[in-house]
């Protein structure tokens, strides 16, 4: 009989569960659909915040696909997948900063009603995903990365709605730029957390072992 701590055994059991797999497939489909919807709306509305949020949906869909791909593999593989997801989140954050600069230089003023409508839809969708993923927030780095992505999405959606109100009230694009910049910072902070945890778990497992970490 393999020997592991109760926490490690519980994490492995959750990782291999059909429930976690089903939830990942559901949130993957939701995020892919919302990417198509929001990127189109963001381009039509001229909103950096909406475009940033749309790309976040795309990144999350890719992250969920990676999580599905490594289900059942040992901890070292799952930690490696989490590190890749963290790195992609960091790239997303840098891209958003570039988008903000582009809109600022062009003096873009977004369409506030479109921002409000799509932002509300995205918030509802991400709250559903957050509830579905809540049971898996205390697993290994791969599972925690899924939870962090979902949590950040809800915060970002609330910020998009505030940006829509700001654009409507001021008639300028500054609220949109500020919120998009904050979303970039949130993505970069999440990337650091995920990559740190993934690196710790990667180093804790020797190649060729069962994948149970020694975190002493």
Automatic annotation (TrEMBL):
Q: Where in the cell is it found?
A: Membrane
| Keyword Ion transport attached | yes
Chief subcellular location equals: membrane
Q: What is the protein's membrane topology class?
A: Multi-pass membrane protein
Domain Cation efflux protein transmembrane residue range list:
24-200
| InterPro entries named in the record | Cation_efflux_TM (IPR058533), Cation_efflux_TMD_sf (IPR027469), CDF/SLC30A (IPR050681)
Entry keywords, A to Z: Ion transport, Membrane, Transmembrane, Transmembrane helix, Transport, Zinc, Zinc transport
Quote a single Gene Ontology cellular component term: plasma membrane
Q: Give the highest taxon in the source lineage.
A: Bacteria
Q: Name one GO molecular function term.
A: zinc ion transmembrane transporter activity
- Which residue windows are transmembrane per the record? 23-45, 57-75, 87-105, 111-133, 154-171
Q: Which PANTHER family match?
A: CATION EFFLUX PROTEIN/ ZINC TRANSPORTER, RE54080P-RELATED
- What is the protein named? Cation transporter
